[in-house]
Amino acid sequence: SDSEGSDLFGGDEEIHDSDYEAEERIRKAALEHNKAKAARDAAAGKKKAAAQSMIVLEIKPYDEETDLKKLAESIRNKITKEGLKWGEDTLADMAFGLQKLIFPLSIVDDLVSIDDDVIMVIEEEFEDDVQSIEIAAFNKL
To answer: 114: Cβ–Cβ under 8 A, 6 or more apart, which residues?
Structure first.
């Protein structure tokens, strides 16, 4: 069996910076690629529908004291941008009475960067309430 795998009892909660940094580089490269392609298509005179993505974020609080519904409303009010539409948020149980916020949104790829315009803003503006943010789903429409 693989001793490097996940601990079934949740003991391996550590986030590896190098993995996170690698994912960030991949996301940024993909975003730059999409922007460059959009610019080439525009220069070539192609008319195409704006590329959109449907994303589901999982936002985990530090403790059970965090009012997740209030946090969701605050995030919606703080992050408003053309090309960004928030979906209906829901709560999901994790463990030991903790819940996480499941937050769907759709973006127009050329107008909104999920990393710079959404995740980074949540991390900076709500750092006292938010322990981590994960992209649970990312689908091109």
So the answer is: 27, 53, 55, 107, 135, 138
Backbone angles phi, psi at 74, to 5 degrees: -65, -40
**Residues facing 90 on adjacent strands:** 102
**116 CB neighbour count, 10 Å cutoff:** 12
> pLDDT tens, 70-121?
999 999 999 999 999 999 999 999 888 899 999 999 999 999 999 999 999 9
Polymer length in residues for the chain: 141
What is the number of other CB atoms lying within 10 angstroms of the CB of residue 74? 15
Give the count of alpha carbons within 13 A of 4, CB side only: 0
38/140 Cα distance (integer angstroms): 15
Q: Which residues, at least 6 apart from 47, have a Cβ–Cβ distance to it below 8 Å?
A: none
Handedness of CA 74, 59, 57, 33 (dihedral sign): positive
Instruction: Judge contact between 60 and 131, C-beta under 8 A.
Output: yes
